[in-house]
Design a protein that fits this description.
Layout lengths: L2 H7 L4 H11 L13 H6 L9 H19 L12 H13 L5 H12 L5 H14 L9 H11 L5 H13 L6 H10 L5 H11 L5 H14 L2 H13 L6 H6 L1 H9 L13 H22 L3 H9 L6 H8 L5 H5 L6 H14 L5 H12 L37
Length: 403
């Protein structure tokens, strides 16, 4: 989904929920670290004979740039500071960006092995170590980093163990990763949601037999967080997200059937988190059915939204999403899509206090070649009916009872 749609959904009180949603449900932990890796190019062909003077100059320039980065490496000046102050200081360095260079890895691992870090500092350091690990191994320390995170997943401090286990699983699957997660769950370092979220992130990088094993376990759990992550991966269509596997997985189909995202029981409320999750769920469910039956994804979605008893907020959530734009543009007058749009608009009109729904209904209609005819807006006036006479107020007794 595009950022515009997410921003619209985040209007008003929804904004805080969306931040929580993105942090809690979607994909692996975010590092916030610099992605500039000049030494990645330097590492290839470093010992080969340059074909031209230009190539040699280019590599020399990269080496100079890398040297300058490490001269200014933010970890150089860090001095262990016990407690929350140290954690805040490391998190500040992390937020500013730490390059994934050999010097960064040496400094970070040196801090970890110094014996001077408090538990609070180690919590921040798990994120830094995770950020220094990448497929290109530009730090030259991928194995050491993975090993340290694995060991920290068994730390007596539950927060350290939690973060280390999650980051370790996010490095991509390694033989035995699932056992690290299971131990963290058994040791109460991970709760159930965190465990299945991490398991879902393992599926793309796991070998085929492990993918099936993890998918079977997640399906049996009916975990909604894992379902959301996998639905998003399936919708990406990318092989590196295991989209092809997920489309053909009976376990994935069963998981989606068991985890349709609900909306708030109060029909006047419209949760941004609920809307985002429902759009992903609907698209993924339709894609799997399309793969099996040959029906178009759009036909399946329109049929699903048209089912009797469907919450009008689900109709509004999907039709206001970018994924629905082609459907809206192609909708003819008196088509089922136009009728669904009218249902979404009516529900918005019936809840005038909800600005989010009004904005999304406007966006939906702006994308339509043939928006539904404008209907009369409800008028909210005083109640009508027979006027009841006022209830007489009983007079207070003149004397106390019994006197």
């Amino acid at each position: 989904m595009t950022s515009i749609h997410r921003i619209l959904l985040a209007t008003g009180c929804v904004a805080g929920i969306l931040v929580l949603y993105r942090n809690h449900f979607l994909e692996a932990p975010q590092t916030g670290l610099s992605t500039t890796r000049p030494e990645a190019s330097l590492a290839t062909g470093i010992n080969s004979v340059p074909s031209t003077n230009g190539a040699a100059e280019y590599r020399a320039s990269l080496a100079i740039a890398s040297s300058k980065i490490d001269e200014q490496n933010p970890l150089r000046a860090y001095q262990p500071t016990s407690g929350i102050r140290g954690r805040i200081a490391l998190e500040d360095l992390y937020a500013r960006g730490i390059p994934a260079t050999p010097k960064s890895a040496t400094l970070a691992l040196g801090l970890l092995h110094s014996g001077k870090l408090s538990d609070d500092e180690k919590i921040a350091l798990t994120a830094i170590l995770y950020g220094l690990h990448n497929r290109e191994n530009t730090s030259g320390a991928n194995q050491d980093i993975a090993l340290e995170l694995k060991k920290m997943a068994y730390d007596a401090n539950k927060q350290i163990a939690h973060d280390a286990a999650v980051y370790y699983a996010a490095l991509e699957y390694m033989p035995g990763t699932e056992y690290v997660l299971k131990d963290a769950l058994r040791n109460d370092a991970l709760d159930t949601d965190s465990y299945f979220r991490a398991m879902a992130h393992l599926i793309p990088s796991a070998p085929p037999e492990k993918r099936k094993e993890f998918m079977t376990e997640i399906r049996a759990s009916k975990n909604s967080l894992a379902s959301s992550i996998l639905a998003n991966a399936l919708n990406s269509g990318q092989d590196f997200n295991a989209a092809s596997f997920l489309k053909s997985s009976d376990d994935m189909a069963k998981l989606l059937r068991d985890t349709e995202p609900p909306f708030d029981e109060a029909v006047g409320k419209f949760g941004g988190v609920d809307a985002l999750r429902y759009v992903d769920w609907l698209r993924a469910s339709a894609t799997i059915e399309s793969t099996k039956t040959g029906r178009s994804v759009n036909d399946i979605i329109v049929s699903q939204l048209s089912a009797p008893g469907t919450d009008a907020r689900k109709v509004l959530a999907y039709l206001s999403s970018p994924e629905a734009t082609p459907l809206l543009e192609q909708s003819a007058p008196d088509s089922q899509v136009q009728k669904l749009a009218a249902i979404a608009r009516l529900h918005s009109n019936q809840n005038p206090g909800n600005i989010d729904m009004a904005l999304l209904a406007d966006l939906m209609e702006a994308r339509m070649t043939n928006p539904p005819p404008a209907g009369p807006k409800p008028v909210f006036g005083p109640p009508t009916g027979p006027v009841m006479p006022p209830t007489p107020t009983p007079q207070a007794p003149q004397t106390m009872p019994g006197r």
